[in-house]
């Protein structure tokens, strides 16, 4: 088995979804699923924060987590491809909704309706929100391709179950979208060495948010002209910007949520970007245990506001749909500032890794790992521990976080 390279790990995924709470957050274990939250299936789209093993089934991918010490607290201590010591946020969501954790789509040998009755996971470490040729199909499943796989599932369900029955199943199902952190990490990595920024951060995050909602085309009939956002750089054009505006590489992307909606989806759970500047990976780069990276956090906050505007507009224009936005940014900030009430002690260093903050070298089989994993917020250089993931999901499921101002996940399930 080939271990992932450090380059692939860097863009491997990032817990974008679901990070945790303030002093008003109740952190007790959540009750099991009951009749009022009956959900037949859950479909998951995103990056490594919710991946359950798709990349294992991409023969050319080294961007995998199916090796120790990942999975050390998972049943049978199995490294399944989750970037975690145990269950991740997708697993805890499924448990709360009362459905089996959706299997990796690529793991299913039989593509029949019975294979998808409890849902499927299309999430893949390294996935980008923006549909650029920078997305390496030999290493990860891009977001557009994830949506394309789901459309195949929809065709199978409607063909075997009949259109009416399939649409009923899907209208009651939950569609989880956890994506965007890798785009921000890529942007920051590409601009860090340049004296000028190729694309202003707010324009870039606006493009990300629009990619959730609108078509991205060569003509680009939106508010933002890709050629103009690249004109800010005089001395250097980064590869990311060049790929973005090159007509030969820019791929037309249908609005993902619109596409999902047209194929039966009605209940969307969409996570904002977390406090990316406070991850062990970013803290290590700046060699400071206390301070976080303001550029990363500022960009994440800007994207989150733009994303909320997009979701509000979509909910208005998609009849009978509901969108629950997960404010991961402020919740993680609360957890880092007030860890003790929630049972955590270490908020800066990773549990598994090597080097400063255990974030110089990721969690490989030869890496060091902590024994007190439930005390740590971060399992590795960027992903949360099983304990943190559970508290995150419980907060949003029950609507107990002070930062949750829309439907709780429990309320959404009951609608």
From TrEMBL:
Domain of life: Eukaryota
GO BP term, example: lipid catabolic process
InterPro entries in the cross-refs: GDSL, GDSL_Est/Lipase, SGNH_hydro_sf, SGNH_plant_lipase-like
Signal peptide positions (record): 1-31
GO function term, MF aspect, one: hydrolase activity, acting on ester bonds
Keyword Lipid metabolism listed: yes
SUPFAM superfamilies according to UniProt: SGNH hydrolase (SSF52266)
Keyword annotations of the record: Hydrolase, Lipid degradation, Lipid metabolism, Signal
Entry-linked Pfam families: Lipase_GDSL (PF00657)
Transferase found in the keyword field: no
Ranges in coiled-coil conformation: none
PANTHER family, A to Z: ANTHER-SPECIFIC PROLINE-RICH PROTEIN APG, GDSL LIPASE/ACYLHYDROLASE FAMILY PROTEIN (AFU_ORTHOLOGUE AFUA_4G14700)
Family as reported in the entry's similarity comment: Belongs to the 'GDSL' lipolytic enzyme family.
Name assigned to this protein: GDSL esterase/lipase
